[in-house]
Amino acid sequence: xxxxxxxxxxxxxxxxxxxxxxxxxxxxxxxxxxxxxxxxxxxxxxxxxxxxxxxxxxxxxxxxxxxxxxxxxxxxxxxxxxxxxxxxxxxxxxxxxxxxxxxxxxxx
Length: 108
What we know:
Layout: E1 10-11, E2 15-16, E3 32-38, E4 47-51, H1 57-71, E5 75-78, E6 81-85, H2 89-98, E7 102-105
């Protein structure tokens, strides 16, 4: 069975058609930032995932850059969460509390 995607991208009458992609909205948290350690799907190397930050994408990237610099490790921003490489939960909790966030260490 052949499934066809019938989105129009070009028309000889109108030219190139711009397709609007739906905006992704994040759920608002309860005001508590959670830090958890994840190793599943990462071939055994763990990362600390920081969730619950109600910040824009640009602000998340700036905060992630600062945390990576202070921890001396790598990381990234994915789906509104900050991922920091390695076991740095205690240091991350201390740094985020200095910035005024309420932080909980989640399981893991």
